[in-house]
Amino acid sequence: xxxxxxxxxxxxxxxxALGCDEVETxxxxxxxxxxxxxxxxxxxxxxxxxxxxxxxxxxxVGVNVELKCEGxxxxxxxxxxxxxxxxxxxxxPDVYVSSFWWSALAAARAAAPTVRRAFVFSDSPDRAALIxxxxxxxxxxxxxxxxxxTGELVAAAHAAGLRVNAWTVNDQDEIAxxxxxxVDGIMSNWPERIPKG
Length: 197
Known about the structure:
This protein has seven helices and eight strands, in the order αββαβαβαβαβαβαβ. The chain is of the alpha/beta class and 197 residues long. An eight-stranded mixed sheet has the order 2-1-3-4-5-6-7-8. α7 links the parallel β7 and β8 (185-186). α3 (73-90) packs parallel to α4 (102-111). The longest helix is centred in the middle third of the chain and has 18 residues, at 73-90.
């Protein structure tokens, strides 16, 4: 997002040019049933579709598809199920889903168990309960906001077989500190600041 408007083809192309391992995109279930890409609730018909983004990225960069919804557990679950089924149909191993909504992740698992799932959070949940819930749901990763990344969280997640991918980390000192903690991935608006390897 530091180089081009988020959720646009230009941003994804720039991420690929910068050698990113993955891009993150936001998907909504529109009222007409389409899966559309937008950070906020989509307002019109000009947004990219999920398939267009996955076509652009396939074989070039991994894709973290964040399942978006506003205030409705049922809608979140429907979004999770539909997106996971579409990802499974496409058989692209470099695509996974993530969400703040447990209901979306549970529905994604039920609809397409082979699709990897990650829980996104921006608060400080009880660590033991978080790890237990993530393990119960068969999650692949935790995506904490940068403010909630600790050595204890990383150690507990790794002990449970979970990856930790932190967001959104733009400061180079903080990037270095998180790398030292052993996080598995760092999401940034300035990915060229993140050392590779």
